[in-house]
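User: Hi! I'm working on a homework problem where we have to compare a predicted structure to a textbook description. Could you give me the structure for the chain below?
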Amino acid sequence: MTRTNWMTPEWEGVPFLMRREVEDFEVHEVPAYPPSGEGGHIFVTIQKRGLDTSRAKRVLAKHFGLDPRSIGHAGQKDARAVTRQCLSLEGVSVEDALAFEHPRVQILDAALHGHKLRRGHLAGNRFRILLRDLPKGSMPAVQGVLDLLQQRGVPNRYMAQRFGVRGDNADLGRMLVLGDTSGAREAARAQGHSHWPNALRKLMVGAWQAQIFNRVLDARMAWEGGLETVCPGDLAIRHESGGIFLVQDEADAQRARALEISASGPLPGCRARLPEGPVLELEQRLLSEDGVCQEDLTRKGPLLSRLGARRPLRALLTEISLEETTEGLLLAFRLPAGSFATAVIDEIGKGRGAGWGLSATASQGEVQ
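Assistant: Happy to help. Predicted structure tokens:
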């Protein structure tokens, strides 16, 4: 199903090719804080090419004789890029870390710190993306889209990376939420997963949560004011602090237009705070259409016992630049942690771009 709801409808989609080469897509993490300079761990900045974060951790673990699970990371980076990110190693000296050599993983710097790096300890990500094979004269349209997204915010949808290579992780996650563990396991085996670790099950449940979030986001884009406003009953998120509050004053709509706050959508779970009024009715209706009710989310067990969060429906786009090169258009911008660069690129192409990660995720029930 083709999406028709865009944040920048004034501009037609521009065809392009993304990620022809791994080097066409660069990601640099923005740390939440610097290493302290003392302690039993070291923070290392790595640059990796053609490896996801899990595989890079295994490379380092094998070299230093560590359990991969002991290596900390703030964000997960995929393999189809050149990425810089921070990892933490315990019991490794700065000198040994800087002496490490590998053809696809480099350690650029290292410093002592007092604790392991945890998921989410990340301020954001900077991206440099080369778009190739654009029609001549495309730069004004691409610049126009970027300018509008900076003024309005980026739809904070989960993109194809979140739903697995076959795109059916959300379906398996839904089965787990409904308690059909055996059915989900059989489906996973059919995918080629011979093992059934807890981490894989959590990944699938997370994909289902992402699918519900995307459906709420698309529905809210069709409401009056779209994602640029909030309404009474919303749980709004302050972009600067991450704080959540219940919208009761219509004056908060002005704060949303100023990009100070945004409405949030659900990552459903037993611990998630619920909105009120029409917003709650929408979210519960979309859950019901997926065959899930609130009681299903209270089922005890390791997968569901801690689930539940809110995610802003918009992400703030900053530090944008655009340069015309002999190979195409080179974009640079920054997004908050957890937001997808391909959501920005998707607005440029509006379905006319080509490249891994651009398929319109399972926002309307389609499987990508």
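For your comparison, note the following. The chain has a mean pLDDT of 92. Residues 100 and 261 are 44 Å apart (CA to CA). Good luck with the assignment!
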